[in-house]
Amino acid sequence: MAGMPQARPSGGVASPAQKKFKVVLLGESGVGKSSLVLRLVKDEWMSSQHSTVGASFFRHAVNVNGQPVNFDIWDTAGQERYKSLASMYYRGAAAALVVYDITNMDSFERARYWIQQLIANSPETIVVLVGNKIDKESERMVPREEAKRLATESSLFPYEASAKDGTRVVDIFRDIAAKLVEKGASVPQVGSGGVVGRNGEKVPNKGTGGKKSGGCPCSS
Ligand SMILES: Nc1nc2c(ncn2[C@@H]2O[C@H](COP(=O)(O)OP(=O)(O)OP(=O)(O)O)[C@@H](O)[C@H]2O)c(=O)[nH]1
Ligand SMILES: [Mg+2]
Question: What is the pTM of this model?
Fold first, then answer.
């Protein structure tokens, strides 16, 4: 399991074979976006998380058929006051996780909204729908069938996960990486324009690697 967020496993200049993609998480405040990212990059869980301010940035790599696929991950803030900033983060993203909480129907309605926004404004983005908190099955309010219907209508991929117990979190990102690699050249990659770092990576903000808050989403 991964340790700290990383730009690329071996450091140095990325070879042409190395892929780097921008991924964004969208969804209502409290659905567990930051918790999913924390589970992915550190395999950790925190029962009380601070609500995200603006957005947080992480780097993480997953392996697909022995090849590293690098993600620049933007964990956006779900609070209403940050809603208008979201398009800065999702435009040009290779993939978006639209997250809702299976115990909260309003969060599912908000997920519909984000899917519509993505389809209208960033059609090249692969969208996955993630129902989080399946460890709270007894409190479920969003039926699985409803999520499947939305996914089918919008031609996207539905998942259910738990940041708390780790169910399916890594699988979701591996599946996304595999789909992006499979789609190949038609997928926007990080690396053209913007601020380029010492190792050839796009740098969203001044500072060290790993987690950052705020900054420029630097879409491709
Ligand atoms: N039971 C359970 N609780 C979760 C899960 N994921 C997140 N939580 C809890 O839900 C609350 C909100 O989680 P966050 O990860 O901060 O949610 P967020 O979507 O990042 O919220 P914003 O940053 O405000 O947009 C926290 O108390 C988490 O501990 C989960 O899978 N299961
Ligand atoms: Mg958050």
Answer: 0.83
Ligand with the closest atom to the CA of 163: 1
- pLDDT digits over 90-148, tens only? 999 999 999 999 999 999 999 999 999 999 999 999 999 999 999 999 999 999 999 99
Give a yes or no: residue 197 inside a domain: no
Q: How far is the CA of 58 from the centre of ligand 1 (A)?
A: 17
**Is any atom of ligand 1 closer than 6 Å to the C-beta of 132?**
yes
CA dist 79 and 3 (Å) reads: 28
Q: Does 176 reside within a domain? A: yes
Distance from the first to the final alpha carbon of the chain: 28
Q: What CATH number has the domain bearing residue 105?
A: 3.40.50.300
- Angle in degrees, 0-180, between the axes of helices 144-153 and 105-121, rounded to the nearest 10: 10
Q: Is residue 130 within 8 Å of residue 100, measured between CB atoms?
A: yes
